[in-house]
Amino acid sequence: MNKKTIRDVEVRGKRVFCRVDFNVPMEDGAITDDTRIRAALPTIQYLIEHGAKVILASHLGRPKGKVVEELRLDAVAKRLGELLERPVVKTNEAIGDEVKAAVANLNEGDVLLLENVRFYPGEEKNDPELARAFAELADLYVNDAFGAAHRAHASTEGIAHYLPAVAGFLMEKEIEVLGKALSNPDRPFTAIIGGAKVKDKIGVIENLLDKVDNLIIGGGLAYTFVKALGHDVGKSLLEEDKIELAKSFMEKAKEKGVRFYMPVDVVVADRFANDANTKVVPIDAIPSDWEALDIGPQTRELYRDVIRQSKLVVWNGPMGVFEMETFSHGTRAVAEALAEAADTYSVIGGGDSAAAVEKFDLADKMDHISTGGGASLEFMEGKQLPGVVALNDK
Ligand SMILES: Nc1ncnc2c1ncn2[C@@H]1O[C@H](COP(=O)(O)OP(=O)(O)OP(=O)(O)O)[C@@H](O)[C@H]1O
Ligand SMILES: O=C(O)[C@H](O)COP(=O)(O)O
C-alpha cells in the first residue's frame, strides 16, 4: 500500500482522532455481532501501547443528521471496554465543549469514544466546518474504518485535509489483501458472484472479467443469465432490462478466455418459504410457476471442484436464499469448499457472504473476511475509495 500507516508516524503523547467502523448490528439495544469492534482492536491496542491519547469516532446506522436515541454508541463503548479490559470514556456529543473537556482530560493510553458522528448533518455532507471541528480535537488522524472508506464524509475524508492522515492496521490489511487479488493474483483465480441482483454486481463482474480465470455465477442474479441463454426461469428473480448485458458478459468471458460457470441444476420451490414444496430440476427445466431459490447438488459439486483447483477465490454474494435452511445448501457448500481447500486463499467480500460464513461457523477457516460490504464491492469494481485516497502517501 502506498499510504502511510500508524507505523510511519510518532503517536506518543499525541491526540489521535481514529475513525473506526463500529456500525454493528443491534437488536433491542444489544450488539448481536461485535466482529467490527474486534477488527479494530489491533490499531486501538497499538495506539494505547504507544502512549497515544485515543479519540475514537464512528457512525452507527443511518440517523440522517439527527439524534436518534437508539443509535447512540453507549453499548459499543461498553463492549469495547470489555474487549480492551480498560475503561472507555464516552461523550454524548462528537464535537463541542463536552468533547473538548474530555479530550483535555486524556492521559497517554486513555481511550475516548465520541457520539455517533452521523447525528450531525455535516458528516454525510462532508462539511468542511465539521471536518475542521473534528480536526481541532487532535494532532493526528488515523483511518481504520475500511467499511466506510467508500464514503466521502467529514470523519472519513474531510478531516484528512486538516491533519497528518494515516491508515490503521485493519485498513492496511483490507487494502493489501483485496489490492493483491486485483493486481497480482495467485492463479487460477476464481471469483464467485452471487446475491440478489445483476444491477448491484455489474461493476464487479465487468472489472473481474479482466482479471479472473474462472467466474462462477449463483444466487438470484443467475436467472437473468439463464434467461439470456434462452431458458425459462419461471418465477425466479429476473431483471428483464439486464438480459442483454448478461449476454454481453458471457460473450466477453469467451473472448477473454475466462471460464464462465453457471448453475446446471437448481432447487425450485412452489412459494418463497422454508416449508415450500421443492424439487431439483435441470437448469433448462424450471417449471413456469416455480421459482429457483438455490443451486442444485450437481452445481454444488461443480463449484466445489473449481474452488478446489483455485489458488485464490474471491466470493461476494450467497448462492441462494441462505437465510432459509431449505435453500442454504448451495451457499453452505461453497463456504465448506473454501474452508476445506487448504491451498486456496479465500477472500470473503463482506456483506451477506460474510454473514453466511459466520452463520455456518466457518469464519475462522477463511483467510480473509472483509469488514466492508459496500466498500469491498466498490474496491472490487476498481473504484478509488475516498477514505483511502485522502490519506498521506508514503
Ligand atoms: N435465488 C434467489 N432468489 C431470491 N433471492 C435470492 C436468491 N439467491 C440469493 N438471494 C438473496 O439475495 C440476498 C443477498 O443479496 P445481496 O445482493 O443483497 O447481498 P450481497 O450480494 O451479499 O451484497 P452485500 O455485500 O451488499 O450484502 C440474500 O438475502 C438472499 O436471500
Ligand atoms: O455497514 C457498512 O457497510 C458501513 O458501515 C457503511 O455504512 P453505510 O452504508 O450506512 O454508509
UniProtKB/TrEMBL annotation:
The keyword Phosphoprotein does not apply. The keyword Cytoplasm applies. It holds the Pfam family PGK. It is found in: Cytoplasm. Its EC number is 2.7.2.3. Pathway: Carbohydrate degradation; glycolysis; pyruvate from D-glyceraldehyde 3-phosphate: step 2/5. It comes from the Bacteria. ATP binds at residues 201, 323, 350-353. PROSITE patterns: PGLYCERATE_KINASE. One of its GO terms (molecular function) is phosphoglycerate kinase activity. It catalyses: (2R)-3-phosphoglycerate + ATP = (2R)-3-phospho-glyceroyl phosphate + ADP. Keywords: ATP-binding, Cytoplasm, Glycolysis, Kinase, Nucleotide-binding, Transferase. Substrate binds at residues 21-23, 36, 59-62, 118, 151. Gene3D superfamilies: Phosphoglycerate kinase, N-terminal domain. Its main location: cytoplasm. InterPro entries: Phosphoglycerate_kinase (IPR001576), Phosphoglycerate_kinase_CS (IPR015911), Phosphoglycerate_kinase_N (IPR015824), Phosphoglycerate_kinase_sf (IPR036043). PANTHER family: PHOSPHOGLYCERATE KINASE, PHOSPHOGLYCERATE KINASE 1, CHLOROPLASTIC-RELATED. Belongs to the phosphoglycerate kinase family. Monomer. This is Phosphoglycerate kinase. It comes from Geobacillus thermodenitrificans. The lineage of its organism: Bacteria, Bacillati, Bacillota, Bacilli, Bacillales.
